[in-house]
Design brief:
Order of helices and strands: HHEEEEEEEHHHH
Strand order of the largest sheet: 1-2-3-4
Shape: flat
Strand content: 15-25%
Radius of gyration: 50 Å
Distance between the termini: 112 Å
Number of strands: 7
Number of helices: 6
Largest sheet: 4 strands, antiparallel
Length: 197
Amino acid sequence: MKNPIEMLKEIKNLLGVELSEEVQEAQTEIVLAQLKLENGTILEADDFIEGKDVFILTEDERVALPKGEYELEDGRILEVLEDGVINSVKAAEEKEKEAPMEEEQMDETQYPTREEFDALKEMVMAIKEELGGYGNKDEEEDMQEAELKEELSKPAAAPIKHSPEASVSNEKKILFAQKRGETTLDRVLSKINQIKK
């Protein structure tokens, strides 16, 4: 993206017109502040304070910095709530101070000690034994598991064996219409059968 002053110079050269003194005075170059993020990305702004515009500097152009929190190379945190506008720049110490406070909030009095836990475990085991013979249930469960394993180890069905040599000796011939009266066609066919023999 070109600077407006450079654009005016190009227009002047095309038209052959001299720039006025006001434009030439405005031609003084504005120096912008640059900072690097932790990952090496270069940021550019008039000044890195609240309310100023901030951009990501690329080879071709400047892109407005998206909203979010960014860690600068020197450890400070840059916070952007609106695309391209700085909300605040926090020192690295503020971030470190917040983390220990979270650790202090953990209250160890809410958790039982090892001795208290063991005593509670023994009480629960005693109640289980009183209510239903806790030891007998283990034996019953072991027996049920053994029966289940035995049942599952049996084959589901008897195996089928292929025997191609077996022959069927009880062949039945089915005769149709034995008591039917003889027709002309039947007589002709029976005579043909007798000739072939």
